[in-house]
Amino acid sequence: MRRFLTVVAVGLCLAAQPVLAATPAPSPAPVSAAVPLLPNAPPPTLEYAFSVQATLAPPVEAGNLDGGRRRFIQVTGGAAYGPMLSGTVLGGGGDWQTIRPGGLTDVEAHYFIKAADGTVIEVTNVGVRVASAEVTDKIARGEAVDPSAYYFRTTTRFGVVDGPLGWMRRAVFVARGIRKPDSVVIDFYVVR
């Protein structure tokens, strides 16, 4: 019985091939002259919010894992300063990195800021750093590198209670990082 059903199924598939081959593939809809080729809304702008300078412990190397060199760099403290936020970076968080072939480094930092008013803000910063192999090696060894030699961008989410800083949960942030030998500086921007 099983063999009979298999033969019937194969026969039906073979019989349908000429019909399927004769059916033309749907063509994409033509672009109408009435469809604008520009955005419908004004482009977003960036507004500088604040910076973080976080001090860092030496990296902990985990070895090659999932196609890249895994590292953990503990955040030991630091400061937040700028027009929209000031406070202290609390020690104990860190940056989980995967240095991949071709100059790509995946970064995911997770730490806390204690604002000047006492509010504790959870920071999750995910992004990439892209550089030549030579620059990547220098950064990994903790050497000073000109920030124009690499691309270091992230997107950020803040966890914060309702109150004067609750607006941080309701906005999109992007950031640019500058890696220094024993610290990192992150400039945060609100997307407007």
UniProtKB/TrEMBL annotation:
Residues in the signal sequence: 1-21
Pfam families on file: DUF3237
Keyword Signal on entry: yes
Keywords: Signal
Keyword Signal: yes
Family: Belongs to the UPF0311 family.
Protein name from the UniProt record: UPF0311 protein GTZ99_05670
